Amino acid sequence: MQHHEAVLRELVHRPVQTNEVGRCAGLLGGFLEVERQTGLPLRLLEVGAAGGLMLRWDQYRYEAGHEGWGDSHSPVRITGVFGGEHPRFDVLARIVERRGCDASPIDPGTEEGRLTLQSYVWPDQVERFRQLAAAIDVARRVSALVDQGNAPAWVETELADGVPGVPGVATVVYHSIVWQYLSKVDRACFERVMAAAGEAATHNKPLAWLRFEPAGNVAEVRLQLWPGCKDRLLARSGFHGKPVQWLGLEN
Fold first, then answer.
1. How many domains is the chain built from?
2. What pTM, to 2 d.p., does this model score?
3. DSSP structure class, residue 73
4. Burial class (CB within 10 angstroms; exposed 0-12, middle 13-18, buried 19+) of 73
5. Could you tell me how far CA 152 lies from the centroid of its own chain?
6. What end-to-end distance do the CA atoms of the chain give, in Å?
7. Which of 25, 102, 163, 179 could pair with 207 as two cysteines, CB 3.0-4.6 Å apart?
8. Is 158 domain-assigned?
9. How far apart are CA 148 and CA 206, in angstroms?
10. Are strands 42-47 and 231-237 parallel, antiparallel or unpaired?
11. Is residue 251 one of the residues assigned to a domain?
């Protein structure tokens, strides 16, 4: 330990960044509902993106019984997650942009980035470890930009020219297990930014806010879509993405 004292002193000050791709199962239904309701391709803006693995959610395979969504040849297979109900899989997702922000971005394309992401998974959780390794492989062939920055300031900049600047695209701002790490000031600022951008949204330039955040002993997946602004509870999920109780748009 004394031989690595300098390295350990630096590491203890790093925040934990669990880039858990299993949470994509809970978010999947939200993304698909935005595409279904708007009929438009998606612009992805992820807050607290870490290594950006969840910016590649459409590159993973999701299976429920004999049904599935996504690339059947994907190395990332998310199975046995949904109970009796699951999101409708009858819509494709068209992604036109993948961008994220994080206070300390991690580049999964580097060896240091790979080891950093893997260090946040407990070594006895073999399934999560294998899934993370497969997601890193996907990230190395599917590009996504993760900026370093403050969450509300970054979102405000990204939405400054409309939602987005080019019509015919649905912008989805999303995050998972991030809200608790923002200060009260940043959370309030974030909400103001989203409300203002939502007011500017149109049917040709819609805005969605998709969240996977703690609510007691489970995480709730909620979706807000402008124009309209109704906040809906879509699903409840385990914090690592399993199991997912899909509720749909009845709430």
1. 1
2. 0.90
3. T
4. exposed
5. 16
6. 53
7. 163
8. yes
9. 26
10. unpaired
11. no
161 to 28, 182, 185, 204, 222: CA distances (angstroms)? 27, 25, 24, 14, 25
Confidence at 250, pLDDT banded by 50, 70, 90: low
CA trace torsion 128, 131, 133, 138 (10° rounding): -150
Query: Which domain covers residue 14, as residue numbers?
Result: 2-246
- Alpha carbon distance 231, 161 (integer Å): 24
Please tell me whether residue 166 adopts helix, strand or coil conformation.
coil
DSSP lists the bridge partners of residue 220 as: 213, 236
Tokens at residue 5, please?
């004292």
Helix (H, G, I), strand (E, B) or coil at 160: coil
pLDDT in tens, 139-193: 999 999 999 999 999 999 999 865 555 679 999 999 999 999 999 999 999 999 9
Q: Is residue 191 part of a domain?
A: yes
Using an 8 Å Cβ cutoff, are 206 and 221 in contact? no
DSSP string, 188-220: HHHHHHHHHHHHH-BTTB-EEEEEEEEETTEEE
Packing angle, helices 111-118 and 126-139, rounded to 10:
150
